[in-house]
Each structure stands twice: as C-alpha cells, then as structure tokens.
Write a structure and sequence with these properties.
Chain lengths: 111, 113
C-alpha cells in the first residue's frame, strides 16, 4: 500500500526563525511530489512540485528538496512570518496517476 | 483567477437527512474530485469524475454518491447522513490526471447531529 508519512505532526516556531518539515513516502513507481499549504478554514494551495530529476526547488521563502533514492522530501521555511501558520500537506503521485496524501504538519508561528 | 466554488461553507444536518454538496469550477477542467478531511487522517478520496456523466469510486465511497451532469459541476450526495460523516469536505479539479496540480474549493464543513 502506498503511504506518505509526515513529521512532525505539529510545531511551533517564533517569527523570523526557520523550520523544516519532513515527508517520507513508499509510493512506487514515482511520478512527482507536491507540497500544499492549507490555511485554517481554506482549501489547500500548491506551493511546489518536485519531479524525479529535481533535488531542490524554491518558491519565495519555501525550499523543497527531494531524495528519490531514499524516498524523502523536506520543506524548509526561511525567516518565518505569521502568515506561514498553516497546515502543510505532502502529496505523492505514482505513475498510475493515483495520489497519496500525507496527514499534514501544522505550523504555528508566534510573534 | 481560477476558481473552485463550493456552495456551502458550513452545514448542520440531522441523522437520516439527505445532503447535497455542490461544487462548480470555472477552469474547463475535465477532472473533478471529492475528498473528506479528518484530523490525523489527511485527505481521503470519496469519488472522482474524468468526464461528464462519468464517475469512479475512490477509497471511501460507502454512504456517498455523486452526479456530474455538466462539465463544470460535480455534486456529492449523502443519501442518509450519519454522525460518522461529520467532516470537512473538499472539492478539487485539475486539467491533467494524476500529475497535475489540484485546485481546491474552500471546503464545506458538515456536522451531522
């Protein structure tokens, strides 16, 4: 069964600090991996997509990494802002077009 | 701006009632999806549709049905709501199966008493 595990389940950081979220998956064969941001009470929005050949991709203060050999991805948030408070969901797509969702990491940024 | 609109943000229903959740997208997407989201479980696929009048079961279709009479509209139906269907329901669409970005609606939070 394809699985996507995210850690930590939740974290609290001070404004201006950095943090890293982890995503481990067993989906095989692999097509791509997306990170979504979900603000409280809203639908998820795509932050970045990683394909097999990509190791790192940045979107403003968000940097995603992918290690396809170990089946691990991370999302690094730099110089966190209050608006970064949200849930971050890792979604992995296999070659059969089926999507596997992680349970998400809830990030709380405090002033 | 691309948009997926869900008709109701919050609903409270009684056990046994019939519930309709409507979703409309303005991106001319072929594919539409209904998910439910529960704490600690992530998003789980209920039903999806790749074309008008076409539907496929997802991972948890029991207790639900869907309707897609027009390309832009995908409805989720709970024939007889039960308390274990209390959840956040998210509609999504994309124009490219599997690998494509999902565009989500704002969600419909359903409480069944």
């Amino acid at each position: 069964k394809n699985q996507v595990e995210q850690s930590p389940q939740s974290l609290i950081i001070l404004e201006g600090k950095n943090c890293t979220l982890q995503c481990n998956y067993t989906v095989s064969p692999f097509s791509n991996l997306r990170w979504y941001k979900q603000d409280t009470g809203r639908g998820p929005v795509s932050l970045t997509i990683m394909t097999f050949s990509e190791n790192t991709k940045s979107n403003r203060r968000y940097t995603a990494t992918l290690d396809a050999d170990t089946k691990q991805s991370s999302l690094h948030i730099t110089a966190s802002q209050l608006s970064d408070s949200a849930s971050y969901i890792c979604v992995v797509s296999g070659n059969d077009y089926k999507l596997s969702f992680g349970a998400g990491t809830t990030v709380t940024v405090r002033a | 701006d691309v948009k997926v609109t869900q008709s109701s943000r919050y609903l409270v229903k009684r056990t046994g009632e019939k519930v309709f959740l409507e979703c409309v997208q303005d991106m001319d997407h072929e594919n539409m999806f209904w998910y439910r989201q529960d704490p600690g479980l992530g998003l789980r696929l209920i039903y999806f549709s790749y074309d008008v009048k076409m539907k496929e079961k997802g991972d948890i279709p029991e207790g639900y049905s869907v309707s897609r009479e027009k390309k832009e509209r995908f409805s989720l139906i709970l024939e007889s709501a039960s308390t274990n269907q209390t959840s956040m329901y998210l509609c999504a669409s994309n124009g490219e199966a599997g690998a494509g970005e999902l565009f989500f609606g704002e969600g419909s939070r359903l409480t069944v008493l």
